[in-house]
Amino acid sequence: MSEGKLLSVDFEIFGYVQGVCFRMYTEKEGLRLGLVGWVKNTCSGTVVGQVQGPADMVEEMKVWLSKEGSPSCRITRASFTNQRSIDKLELSGFKTRF
Predict the structure, then answer these.
(1) Active-site residue 77, yes or no?
(2) How far apart are CA 45 and CA 77, in angstroms?
(3) From CA 68, how far away is CA 90, in angstroms rounded?
(4) 50-59 pLDDT per residue, tens
(5) Which of 23, 74, 77, 97 is the catalytic position?
(6) Residue 97 among the catalytic residues
(7) Annotated catalytic residue: which of 32, 41, 74, 84?
């Protein structure tokens, strides 16, 4: 495992992901995994955000965002960009932005 290594990654989730509590579930999952970050709906019907935390937990969150999401969502594609190592967390908490 990559113990102690912190990662930051931006994400965009495509499909039927608005109006299905996707942001709320993303926030809950991020907190469950001990991550910090944010999540927000876009006007183009996707959900975007950023997660930061221990590398193994960030990887677990990426799988969750790609395959699981909220119970009634239908994810067609997940895009992860700007993945980078960080020395310390740049955010605090996990929040829904508007």
Answers:
(1) no
(2) 13
(3) 26
(4) 999 999 999 9
(5) 23
(6) no
(7) 41
